[in-house]
Design goal:
Rossmann fold; 467 residues; globular; 16 helices; 16 strands; 2 domains; Maf protein; alpha/beta
Length: 467
């Protein structure tokens, strides 16, 4: 199947001329920009059963029930459920044998007069693929990046049309559907940071792969999913939380990875005891760490890593931020609370290498200025030299002499802290060694990973497990 990249008007007209599709549009915030396309191209009477815009909060609550916030997933789902059910109740007897019903909804916060609000929105469509079929659903979250309200409205209208058209024409090709969301738009105007597809039309879809595709295609810089594999919208789950992140390849996750995060979490919580807030711990993989030597992404390998991380009970983040300072800037967009990064001592040494920041005009000083300006601390897990037996910690690391004063400054300011509790017996464990043991069918690798991870690898034959 090929994406023809039709104009929004051409897409809207094609939907209007499809005698099978019939439904309603409910939009809150940023005008009725989506349904306006279907009205103005002609033929709307064959597609639109109802258009509604419940702007007033009291009116909205009376129609859809109360929600935690007016621009949130819960409100969108309430809108979709009510509007879709009304279509079925009112119209199925009359035209149900020949009609595939749908309900489109969005709830949006576009740029206000003073330009002080977060500009984002939730859009979704619940639809039948054919008459009498069970409904399927697509939900997306967008960030609107234009500086003017009118431009944000325009972009919202276009992506809404793309969603409706994609649901009807590309539901059998989820990759193409996702890619088509930005037809006639650019990532400078709108960002899609979450897509969730569910229902009978998407039984074959793994939403974790869809999340990866968002990052891979450049529609978003970050994707998140929970320990049970559900797609998460980053801003909602990072909002007003302390955030602790461990970056790694996790191929597979080992006792070292778990011990590092658990040790850091204990120290991180103690450091922030005076300003309590919910804390979220995240295991993060960069796209750089997912790419192979051919610069392609092995989806099977990605799912294997996600499966074992989820088996260990952790929230997973995929980011397109190879540099830590860019990851921190992203996290601080959504939380003003404390941010912690935990890493091995060897990774800390790498962090102080100047060539890592050659693309920045201010070099390593600019990078560290960005990294540590947001309530950030690094929690360092020790490294044991297998040849000499030396245990390297924060106080005896071999940092480049040119960066010694900078390193000492960060230590004195407690921006870099040694993890006080760790299991020394785990230090000789390295994920590449464990992976080699698994692929070569060597005995003993099970003792190097958590029991639930070993069971997952064996049951699903992950990472080339053959026995």
């Amino acid at each position: 199947m090929e994406n023809k990249i039709l104009s929004p008007g051409a897409k809207a007209l094609e939907v209007n001329l499809d005698n099978v599709r019939y439904g309603s549009f409910a939009e809150i915030g940023a005008g009725q920009e989506v349904v306006r396309w279907f009205f103005r191209v002609g033929g709307a009477a064959g597609t639109i059963a109802k258009s509604i815009s419940a702007y007033d909060m009291k009116v909205s609550d009376d129609i859809y029930g109360e929600a935690p916030r007016y621009v949130c997933r819960e409100r969108l789902e309430d809108m979709l459920e009510l509007e879709y059910n009304l279509n079925i109740e009112r119209l199925s007897e009359q035209r149900g044998d020949t009609t595939a019903f749908f309900a489109f909804a969005d709830t949006v916060s576009a740029r206000n007069y003073h330009g002080t609000n977060e500009c984002h929105g939730w859009l979704g469509i619940r639809f039948q693929t054919e008459p009498h079929s069970a409904p399927s659903e697509i939900i997306i979250h967008v960030r609107m990046l234009d500086n003017e309200n009118s431009l944000q409205q325009e972009a919202l209208g276009i992506i809404g049309v793309n969603l409706v058209y994609g649901a009807f024409h590309y539901y059998q090709s989820p990759d193409l559907l996702v890619k088509s969301l930005l037809d006639n738009l650019t990532t400078d105007r709108i960002e899609v940071d979450m897509v969730d597809m569910h229902g009978d039309a998407f039984l074959h879809v793994d939403n974790r792969v869809i999340s990866l595709r968002l990052v891979q295609l450049g529609l978003s810089d970050v994707a998140m999913f929970s320990a049970d594999g559900k797609v998460l919208q980053p801003s909602e789950h990072l909002r007003k939380k302390n955030v602790l992140v461990e970056r790694g390849r996790f191929r597979p996750v080992t006792h070292v990875n778990i011990d590092m995060l658990n040790s850091a979490r204990k120290q991180f919580d103690a450091d922030n005891a005076a300003s309590p807030a919910d804390t979220i711990s995240i295991m993060e993989i960069t796209m750089h760490n997912l790419r192979s030597e051919s610069d392609s992404i092995d989806l099977e390998d990605f799912i294997s890593r996600a499966d074992v991380l989820e088996a260990a009970g952790h929230t997973v983040m995929i980011s397109d931020y190879p540099e830590y300072y860019r990851l921190v800037s992203y996290l601080s967009r959504y939380t003003d609370r404390h941010i912690g990064l935990t890493m091995g001592a060897h990774s800390l040494v790498e962090l102080f290498k100047e060539d890592y920041y050659s693309r920045l005009q201010g070099g390593i000083l600019e990078a560290f200025g960005r990294l540590f300006k947001h309530n950030v601390k690094l929690y360092i897990y020790p490294y044991k030299d297998t040849q000499t037996g030396t245990l390297y910690k924060v106080d005896n690391l071999r940092i480049d002499p040119k960066q010694a004063n900078l390193y000492e400054y960060l230590k004195q300011g407690e921006h870099v802290q040694q993890l006080r509790e760790f299991n020394e017996a785990y230090l000789p464990i390295f994920s590449p060694d464990v992976l080699k043991m698994i692929t070569e069918n060597q005995h003993g690798w099970e003792s190097l990973v958590p029991e639930v991870v070993a069971e997952k690898i064996k049951k699903q034959r992950l990472f080339g497990y053959k026995n």
